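Ops channel
N.P.: pipeline sanity check, posting one input/output pair.
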């Protein structure tokens, strides 16, 4: 796929592309939908094989944000930014790049609100906000923000796993269940802790060598990358990058359900049907992981306390997943299709509310 066809086929509103001549980085800001409110979504910063894959990632991630906020029934639209770093990026250039990125957000004048994502942190949000304020979520508490979005995202994913267990056999408890987590980064790590506390057996895999020791130190069982998909478990929880549920991996899976934090887990929409055909229950990613976006923006933009945010995230994830599973069961359609129907209905409602 080339950039031209990606843009032509995209169902979003706007895409901004900026070349940062000083570092050679590309910044892509994708505005998927402002129908329910200003477009919000995190900033992903990493190297990509080429510009086309960076644009593709930004477009898909932005669409996911629209779904997430609509699933949460929240008055916010979907957008996402990707900072595609050159392969030879000098980390001393990082602060300057983030400030120039902040200036770009400022220029957009409230069309796009950002937050952290893979490769960026709350400390980075502080730097971006120096020029990009007030359109930046999840700054550090010292800078007046609600801090890291990982823990509240992880809490939401934990409730997604409970709702998934409930759908599997009527019992939401995770005690005695075997969960395999792919990636113990900021969200996977929180999830692992909550699962241990709930009495689950937790295994994990991570491509970062230092993560192996970190996970083992809290009693998680390490699974080598080559055994990841075929390891027998109750729930497989992808908490790393997207595209991992595909024609190669789905036939290998040895689990009853998939529920995790990674965005865009399905490589193609057809992969949801592949899971259905294998009777593997799939909890759509953008519902499992809506806790960060909903919780942090709720605290910062709507003045929720942390306790209110946690309760609302838990309720939104649980209720939406229950609805999705029920519709999927009743109509014999994949959970992905069911979730899209439910979210589209909420989007229509958003249009009425705003009279657009
Ligand atoms: N990374 C978050 C997500 O994918 C985005 C986000 C975090 C947006 C915090 C706003 C605030 O959902």
């Amino acid at each position: 796929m080339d950039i031209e066809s990606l843009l032509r086929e995209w169902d979003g509103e706007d895409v901004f592309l900026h070349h940062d001549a000083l570092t050679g980085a590309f910044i892509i800001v994708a505005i998927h939908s402002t129908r329910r409110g200003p477009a919000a979504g995190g900033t992903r910063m990493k190297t990509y094989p080429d510009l086309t894959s960076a644009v593709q990632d930004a477009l898909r991630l932005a669409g996911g944000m629209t779904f997430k906020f609509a699933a949460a029934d929240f008055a916010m639209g979907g957008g996402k930014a990707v900072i595609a770093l050159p392969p030879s990026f000098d980390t001393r250039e990082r602060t300057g790049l983030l400030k120039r990125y902040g200036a770009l957000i400022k220029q957009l004048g409230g069309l796009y609100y950002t937050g952290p994502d893979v490769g960026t942190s709350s400390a980075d949000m502080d730097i971006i906000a120096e020029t990009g304020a007030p359109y930046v979520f999840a700054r550090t508490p010292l800078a007046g923000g609600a801090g890291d979005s990982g823990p509240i995202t992880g809490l939401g994913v934990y409730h997604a796993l409970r709702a998934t267990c409930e759908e599997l056999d009527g019992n939401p408890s995770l005690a005695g269940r075997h969960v395999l987590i792919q990636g113990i980064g900021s969200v996977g790590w929180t999830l692992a802790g909550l699962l241990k506390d709930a009495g689950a057996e937790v295994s994990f895999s991570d491509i970062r060598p230092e993560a192996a020791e970190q996970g083992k130190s809290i009693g998680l069982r390490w699974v080598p990358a080559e055994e990841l998909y075929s390891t027998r478990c109750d729930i497989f929880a992808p908490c790393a990058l997207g595209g991992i549920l595909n024609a190669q991996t789905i036939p290998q899976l040895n689990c009853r359900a998939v529920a995790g934090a990674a965005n865009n887990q399905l490589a193609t929409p057809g992969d949801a049907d592949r899971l259905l055909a294998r009777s593997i229950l799939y909890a759509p990613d953008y519902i499992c992981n809506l806790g960060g976006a909903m919780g942090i923006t709720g605290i910062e933009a709507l003045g929720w306390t942390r306790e209110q945010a946690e309760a609302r995230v838990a309720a939104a994830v649980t209720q939406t997943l229950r609805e999705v599973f029920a519709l999927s069961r009743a109509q014999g359609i994949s959970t992905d299709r069911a979730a899209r129907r439910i979210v589209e209905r909420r989007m229509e409602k958003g249009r009425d509310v705003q009279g657009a």
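N.P.: looks fine end to end. Residues 40-42, 68, 115-117, 137-138, 149, 263, 289, 292-293, 296-297 surround phenylalanine (CB under 6 Å).
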